[in-house]
Design a protein that fits this description.
There is one protein chain. The protein folds into 3 domains: about 15-25 and about 250-280; about 40-125, Cytochrome Bc1 Complex, Chain D, domain 2; about 145-240, Cytochrome c-like domain (Cytochrome Bc1 Complex, Chain D, domain 2). Helix content is about 55%, strand content about 0%. The protein contains 14 helices and no strands. It has helices spanning about 5-30, 40-50, 70, 75-85, 85-90, 95-100, 115-125, 145-155, 190-195, 195-205, 215, 225-240, 245-270, 275-280. The longest helix has 29 residues, at about 245-270. It is flat and about 80 Å long. About 25% of the residues are buried.
Length: about 280
């Protein structure tokens, strides 16, 4: 680089640094975005964070056996307990205090779980042994429309109860780029995870994920809306569309390329300036 001026080397360094930052952001986005909120992910999280003190059907250890815990405890209480056990003990929550005394005053540690991880754990604890919920009987004869389901998912058709559209928190491979939200799991394969459209209809009719209960408790989906959304998600799975991670990688690669083009043009423009215009004022 003997023929490249110190000022030019500075521009090259800035371009390389900016390109590296964009690439790091791309990797972070793909790794940080939760792909699913499933019992499978919950099983892995249980083995990582919970299995040292708990079993499911194997008896008490340092903590209680969690077989059937989803039916013994309120979902909101469980979500709060998994998120902030130390805070609940400090506040004197009666159930938390009773558990502490019952299990040799060994407090449950705060694992600093994310909301998505908590939902996945609760999904695993809720479906580890019982079968998935069946579709409510009032859905008999209700035929879902994938087209209407997509409109409900994206919000172009509002839910009759006034609840927010799925796209605010979730993505689906059947959506166009850039897709849906990143807060909740990708729903491209959600029908398979619930054993078919009937199981998914049941889940939509009795929304139990703690992060969704406060939002939809007073805004339930109608049987027709449940059927339409299930039909759309079933179609999404059959289309085998690209996952959220791949689509966002494509967007970041595009942004990465456009930034590089801009920096190259800026460098070329700078090189074409008269020599005296490119000199710092201190050297003129």
């Amino acid at each position: 680089m003997g023929n490249v001026s110190r000022h030019s080397r500075k521009w090259i360094l800035i371009a390389a640094l900016m390109s590296g930052l964009v690439l790091l952001q791309t990797v972070w986005l793909v790794q940080a975005a939760p792909d699913r909120q499933s019992p499978e992910e919950g099983r892995a999280l249980f083995e990582q964070y919970c299995a040292g003190c708990h079993t499911i059907g194997g008896g008490d250890l340092a903590g209680p056996d969690l077989q059937g815990v989803a039916s013994r405890r309120d979902p909101e209480w469980l979500e709060h307990w998994l998120a902030e056990p130390d805070v609940m003990l400090a506040e004197g929550d009666p159930i938390a205090v009773e558990l502490l005394a019952q299990y040799n005053n060994i407090p449950m540690p705060n694992q600093h779980l994310t909301l998505s991880e908590i939902d996945a754990l609760l999904a695993y604890l809720g479906v580890a042994h019982p079968s998935l919920p069946a579709a409510p009987s009032d859905q008999a004869g209700v035929v879902g429309s994938a087209e209407r389901g997509k409109a409900l998912f994206t919000g172009s058709q509002t839910l009759s109860g006034g609840g927010p559209a799925c796209i605010a928190c979730h993505d689906s491979g059947a959506l166009d780029v850039p897709g849906g939200g990143l807060f909740g799991p990708d729903l491209t394969q959600v029908v398979q995870r619930y054993g078919g459209e009937a199981g998914l209809r049941g889940a939509l009719g009795t929304i139990a994920f703690p992060s969704m209960v406060p939002v939809y408790r007073d805004r339930p989906l109608t049987p027709q809306e449940q059927a339409d959304l299930a039909a759309f998600m079933g179609q999404s799975a059959s289309e085998a569309a690209p996952s959220r991670g791949l689509r966002y990688v494509a967007l970041y690669i595009l942004a990465f390329g456009m930034m590089d083009v801009f920096l190259v043009l800026l460098f070329v423009w700078h090189r074409r300036l008269p020599h005296h215009a490119r000199q710092p004022l201190s050297q003129r």
